[in-house]
Amino acid sequence: MGICGPAVLFGAVVAVSFLYPLTRFMMLPLMPDWAPLPGLGAASGLGLSSGALWNTVRLSTEAGLLVIPPGLLAGFLLERRRWRGAGLLSAVLWGIFLMPSYLLTMGWQIVVAAPFLADGAAGRLLYGEAGIVALLTLKGLAFSSVAARAGWHAVGADMDAASRVHVPAAWRRAWLTLRLLLPVSGSIFTIQVVAASQDFGIAATLGAQAHMPLVIYAIYQDLSTVPLDFTRAARLSWVLVLLALAALVVQAVLARRSVMAGGGHRHRPGVAPCGRGMTVLAWSLTVGILLAGGGVPLLALAAQAMGDTGTGDALLIDGEGWRGIGLSLRYAFVSAVFAVMLAALILGGRMRAGGSGRVVARMLLWLTSANMAVPGVILGAAYVIAFNGRVLSLYGTPALLILAYTASHLPIAIRFLDAPFAHLHRGLGEAARVHGVSLVRRVERIYLPLLLRRLTWAWGMVFVTLFFELPLSEILYPAGSAPLGVKLLSLDDTLHYGAEARLALVAMGICLAVTAAAIILVPRLVVGSGPERMGGAGNARTAPSLEQENA
């Protein structure tokens, strides 16, 4: 592989996983003969639903605007204030981010299904525009808080000190800070618009039952209902892709303006203790997000699972449910391993000197940004087109589903591991190479002890999201081997809330147990035995200092 090895590897992964499938699918409006079967490429009219397009743009815009105030407040509390509930708020935001949107929707559907709420204002709000926008806003809080923390960090201590000296009025200082945060607010808005327009879980559950068509679900209907219409799905996909690309361009411009407004070298802003009023506001925000995004839906699922007993063994999960859990465990485990391994290989190649590393770095930025413009439904449809021919006949096999899982979550693993790999000093590997240490030994003795914990966390995050993955599973799962997400959505469509709740709770427990075991045990077993092979207790004492030096 030599000097150009990382670039060749990265190019092959991008070509097979993204460029070839997406090009074939997105070109269907111009090349109808590229459809998987004769006759499936013909569509009548433009194939654009004005109602679905208007609903998508309107609801995504409303969710983007509504998420800005709580996102900025959460970022401020986590970045600029010291209080006891900061860890809880961060954990709640990450929990909402990892919780599948269709399970969040299902929990609130069970709550509103109560007789005294179903026919009242609560039922009308949930099964209407307000309910969809509220759930989309909840799902976007994690992204918005992360972006807001970066914005509050950009307004450093120097800016705060200068504003206190030159701007005596408190309200004018607050107005100046808000003006400095305008680029960050714009970035939050654009990211939320993209995420909301591509959320398949809410569109397939609440949107479908509320009879509010959305573009993301209309694409899935064209691919799953007879007659199949791949060309119309491709035209609708162009709408989502162009909307996302426009938002990403705006986000890039705003991010550059944010850097220019923040200046160059900045001192970290001070972390002050919360006053009484700010503490009340902070706990109110935390408790509200916890109840709306986790507490109430999970309690509703538990109550439904225990209350809907039916007759006989109604509380037991049937064989199909256990089979779905087992299949999702295998698919998610293998795909997460592949995604993290590929991310590590690509990021490791960037550490090489020469032009190859710079090329890989530019391609990394392109991939991680362009991934936001390709939701799972579009990627699944592209895989149906690309891998259903004579050359690469993978459609209907578990291999294609694993490939799709890996490709869709490779950018997430790259983003998560980018900072740890960037902090590794290149001199570590160069010094070991000078002393004749082979590549395998360098990975075993230097890189693995320093990166294994982050690699395990990246694997856990990818595994959790893939375990409950829905759009790719709906389109690509092999016949008779429905993963967990497909089984849960089928139970939700047939209004079997009790069986769905039991299956979801058991699956969540298994998923969390596997993830926690991997995160806790793998670093201890692998890294714990590494120093002993490297020379005993003396090297074990020097390993933490080496990690601190790299940090």
Defining traits:
551 residues; membrane; globular; 1% strand; 2 strands; MetI-like fold; cell membrane; single chain; transport; 2 domains; two-stranded parallel ribbon; cell inner membrane; MetI-like_sf; mainly alpha; disordered C terminus
Describe the structure.
The protein is mainly α and 551 residues long. It has two domains: 1-30 and 311-528, MetI-like (MetI-like fold, Orthogonal Bundle); 49-260 and 275-308, MetI-like (MetI-like fold). It is 77% helix and 1% strand. It has 26 helices and two strands. It has helices spanning 5-26, 50-66, 68-79, 86-98, 101-112, 115-118, 121-126, 129-139, 141-154, 157-166, 170-180, 182-197, 200-209, 215-224, 230-262, 276-307, 319-350, 355-370, 376-386, 398-423, 426-434, 439-467, 471-476, 484-493, 497-533, 537-550, and strands at residues 81-82, 272-273. Strands 1-2 form a two-stranded parallel sheet. The two termini are 29 Å apart. One of its GO terms (biological process) is transmembrane transport. InterPro entries: MetI-like, MetI-like_sf. It is found in: Cell inner membrane.
